[in-house]
């Protein structure tokens, strides 16, 4: 067995969260080994946020051009996927090559190791036949994988995950999307705007089921207007592929045929492959539980999607800052004496380690209109026993929404006893941007009375917040 090599910190998984932690700890002067089996940067830049938003940018340009007839004359639109695929290949992903990203890490002083990292007893990580002993800690940032539901026959078919959907060069004639969550909806609408006949199959009774029902309605109506067929309350019982097309057999005798099938039914962490049991941790959970400093146990931190705190790049980055501060703090405490910490350039001290707080967690589904939300939905607030007030305004009744002919809404969820907002939803052409005001309100617990008496610029989409505040009851 190889002799363990002693380093300060080992980071396993260099996705959004792991790369940020590893790079910043290396910059602070620690000896850091970063282990990645796929591409440094992870899901977001190669198969997630960035390329999907490039697809959406292009699809929205088509949709806007199609509105010329409504507002400004006539326009003929001829969709072409080639520029989209080219931009994803060349600008977003370097044709799925992480050379630049690896250099970004090693230039900060980190040591990069390509391979599968696995815990191998207290403080140890094994990568193939290399073993590293971490003096100060191990950080896990291994993300999640798509959940492939146990539908009869599905596993034997050439179904797509987000990887194939993002890498596609030639669009199929028709696409079946299993799952009506954020990823399914975004990709469905983008492909539909390029002329693909898209059907979404969702087992729940509405799409975007984790968000407010009013938001689901607007999103579903928008997708239907783009020609997307949406089947809610439909369970897939069997999937077959005849070498050419997919057939989905659903409850109630429903049959749907499509050229391709995209599985977008959620994501989960693969904890059982991380060797958690070698450190006395339970690998059978869906996510890796962390405390508010992102600690899993003594000497182990976790960051990003695998913590289950919110599957978003901004959550991974937020958590990464906490991990960095806490590891540096831990390192200083482990090196007492006059020279303690003198080689470290981090700024966090014992009082400076921030604690994770997800009360004002924002999320945006980048459909058109965008669905932005922060904090609790009405239902979640009621389930927590909060004395709830709700205020709703429709974008169409605001001046800007009427001018724009935009669908959308603002929904506010207030804690009447405390006089603050605990959640909000903003649906509209700039729903994700309008959301920022609501995030500040929830995060800062700004008194509703103050929100009512501030000045909202005319005629903006965000003026609809003022109407919703007026409607709180
Ligand atoms: C289609 C799509 C669109 C999205 N759009 C958005 C968006 O608009 N906004 C947003 O905020 N979020 C979006 N997300 C979510 C976002 O991509 C994730 O939240 C983010 O990538 C999480 O980062 P992470 O560091 O936790 O994990 P990941 O980015 O998944 O990285 C984990 C890394 O760990 C590596 N790894 C795993 N196991 C091991 C191991 N044993 N050894 C070595 N390496 C390992 C993997 O190869 C991977 O590179 C989207 C996701 C998808 C799929």
Question: How would you describe this structure to a colleague?
Answer:
The chain is globular and about 70 Å long. The strands form 5 sheets. Strands 1, 2, 3, 4, 5, 6, 16 and 17 form an 8-stranded mixed β-sheet that branches. The chain starts with a strand and ends with a helix. Strand 4 (117-119) and strand 5 (124-127) form a beta hairpin. It has helices at 16-27, 43-47, 49-66, 68-71, 82-92, 99-106, 162-167, 182-193, 213-225, 313-334, 378-383, 399-404, 431-443, 448-452, 464-470; strands at 5-12, 32-36, 111-114, 117-119, 124-127, 130-140, 145-146, 174-178, 197-202, 229-232, 236-241, 246-250, 255-258, 260-263, 267-268, 295-297, 300-302, 362-365, 370-375, 388-394, 409-415, 420-428. The chain is of the alpha/beta class.
Instruction: Quote the distance from N terminus to C terminus.
Output: 68 Å
Shape assignment:
globular
Strand content: 15-25%
Mean pLDDT: 95
Provide key terms for this protein:
15 helices; single chain; 8-stranded mixed β-sheet; 473 residues; 24% strand
How are the secondary structure elements laid out?
Blueprint: E1 5-12, H1 16-27, E2 32-36, H2 43-47, H3 49-66, H4 68-71, H5 82-92, H6 99-106, E3 111-114, E4 117-119, E5 124-127, E6 130-140, E7 145-146, H7 162-167, E8 174-178, H8 182-193, E9 197-202, H9 213-225, E10 229-232, E11 236-241, E12 246-250, E13 255-258, E14 260-263, E15 267-268, E16 295-297, E17 300-302, H10 313-334, E18 362-365, E19 370-375, H11 378-383, E20 388-394, H12 399-404, E21 409-415, E22 420-428, H13 431-443, H14 448-452, H15 464-470
Flavin-adenine dinucleotide binds at residues 12-13, 15-18, 35-39, 42-44, 48-49, 52, 116-117, 141-143, 162, 183, 304-305, 311-314, 316, 366.
């Amino acid at each position: 067995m190889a002799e363990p090599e002693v380093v300060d910190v080992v980071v396993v998984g260099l996705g959004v969260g792991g790369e940020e932690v590893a790079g910043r700890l290396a910059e602070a002067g620690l000896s850091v080994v970063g282990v990645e089996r796929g591409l440094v940067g992870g899901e977001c830049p190669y198969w997630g946020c960035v390329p999907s938003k490039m697809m959406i940018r292009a699809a929205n340009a088509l949709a806007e051009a199609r509105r010329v007839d409504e507002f400004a004359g006539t326009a003929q639109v001829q969709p072409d996927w080639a520029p989209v695929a080219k931009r994803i290949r060349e600008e977003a992903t370097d044709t799925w090559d992480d050379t630049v990203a690896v250099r970004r890490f090693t230039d900060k002083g980190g040591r990069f190791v390509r391979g599968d990292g696995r815990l191998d007893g207290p403080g140890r990580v094994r990568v193939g036949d290399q073993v590293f002993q971490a003096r100060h800690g191990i950080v896990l940032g291994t993300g999640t994988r798509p959940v492939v539901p146990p539908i009869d026959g599905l596993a034997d078919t050439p179904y797509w995950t987000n990887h194939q959907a993002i890498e596609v060069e030639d669009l199929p004639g028709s696409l079946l999307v299993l799952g009506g969550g954020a990823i399914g909806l975004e990709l469905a609408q983008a492909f539909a705007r390029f002329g693909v006949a898209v059907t979404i199959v969702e087992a729940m009774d509405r799409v975007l089921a984790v968000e407010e029902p009013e938001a689901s309605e607007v999103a579903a109506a928008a997708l239907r207007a783009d020609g997307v067929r949406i089947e809610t309350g439909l369970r897939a019982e069997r999937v077959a592929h005849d070498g050419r097309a997919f057939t989905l057999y659903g409850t109630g005798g429903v049959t749907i045929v499509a050229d391709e099938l995209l599985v977008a039914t959620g994501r989960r962490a693969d904890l059982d492959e991380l060797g958690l049991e070698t450190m006395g941790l339970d690998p059978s959970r869906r996510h890796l539980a962390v405390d508010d400093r992102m600690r899993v146990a003594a000497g182990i931190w976790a960051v990003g999607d695998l913590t289950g705190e919110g599957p978003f790049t901004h959550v991974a980055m937020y958590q990464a800052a906490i991990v960095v501060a806490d590891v540096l703090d831990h390192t200083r405490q482990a090196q007492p004496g006059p020279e303690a910490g003198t080689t470290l350039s981090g700024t966090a001290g014992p009082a400076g380690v921030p604690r994770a707080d997800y009360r004002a967690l924002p999320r945006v589904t980048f459909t058109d209109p965008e669905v932005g939300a922060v904090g609790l939905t009405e239902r979640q607030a009621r389930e927590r026993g909060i004395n709830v007030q709700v205020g709703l305004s429709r974008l169409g009744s605001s001046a800007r929404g009427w001018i724009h002919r935009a669908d959308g809404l603002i929904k506010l969820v207030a804690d009447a006893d405390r006089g603050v907002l605990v959640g909000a939803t903003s649906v509209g052409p700039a729903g994700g941007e309008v959301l920022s005001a609501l995030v500040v309100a929830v995060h800062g617990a700004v008194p509703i009375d103050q929100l009512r008496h501030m000045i909202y610029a005319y005629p903006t989409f965000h003026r609809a917040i003022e109407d919703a505040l007026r409607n709180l009851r």
